[in-house]
Amino acid sequence: MAKLQVAIDLLSTEAALELAAKVAPYVDIxxxxxxxxxxxxxxxxxxxxxxxxxxxxxxxxxTADTGALEAEMAFNAGAxxxxxxxxxxxxxxxxxxxxxxxxxxxxxVDTIGVKNRVQRAKExxxxxxxxxxxxxxxxxxxxxxxxxxxxxxxxxxxxxPFSIAGGVNANSIKDVLAxxxxxxxxxxxxxxxxxxxxxxEALKAAFN
Length: 208
Ligand SMILES: O=C(CO)[C@H](O)[C@H](O)COP(=O)(O)O
What we know:
- Pathway: One-carbon metabolism; formaldehyde assimilation via RuMP pathway; D-fructose 6-phosphate from D-ribulose 5-phosphate and formaldehyde: step 1/2.
- It catalyses: D-ribulose 5-phosphate + formaldehyde = D-arabino-hex-3-ulose 6-phosphate.
- GO terms for molecular function: 3-dehydro-L-gulonate-6-phosphate decarboxylase activity; hexulose-6-phosphate synthase activity; orotidine-5'-phosphate decarboxylase activity.
- By secondary structure, the protein is α/β, with parallel strands linked by helices.
- The chain has helices at about 15-25, 35-40, 45-50, 65-75, 90-105, 115-125, 140, 150-160, 175-180, 190, 195-205; strands at about 5-10, 30, 55-65, 80-85, 105-110, 130-135, 160-165, 185.
- Bound molecules: ribulose-5-phosphate.
- Ribulose-5-phosphate binds near residues 188 and 189.
C-alpha cells in the first residue's frame, strides 16, 4: 500500500509539532524539511519521533558528503529515513546505506539537480536505497512551464521504487498513485491549506 508523506517546511519545532498533531491521523510519514532542520537542528527530529513514535520520521538531510556520518547523526536523533542527494559521489550514498543497514534504518535518494533522473534512479537503486525521490524542488517548481507530469512519467519509465515530490496536491495525487509511487509527498498542499487536517484527509482519501 502506498504511503502519504507530509513535508513540513515550516521553521520552528513548535510549528512543526502543531502541524504534525493535526495531520498525523492521515499520514504515514512525517518529513522534517531541510530548512527546518537547518534552523532547529536535529533536536526537531528527536522531538517529532517522541511525539509520534508510531509514524515514520523522515529527516530531509539532503546530504552531499560524509554520507555515513550525517545519516548516523539523523538516525541517532530518531529518524527512520534520511535523504542523500543523487548528484553526489556514489561513495556518499553507499556510506549512508551502510549506516542505515547497521542501524536498521533507510536511505532515500533525492533527485534535485540530477540531469537524467531515470538513469540515476536505476543506478542508485542498485546501491541498496529504500526508494528514489523523483523531486522538483520549490525553486524548480516556481519556474515557468513546470509540470509534475514529467516526474510521474519518469517514475513509470524508471521501473524502480520511487516517491514523487514537487507540488503533489488534490489534482495530481491520483496520477501519482496510478504511476505506482510508493510514497506521495505533499508539503505546501497541506501546510499552506486553510485547514491542514482536512487537506491531508482529502489526499489520503485518494489512496482508497
Ligand atoms: O523537499 C522539499 C523542497 O526541497 C519539499 O519538502 C518538497 O518539494 C515537498 O513540498 P511541496 O509539496 O510543497 O513541493
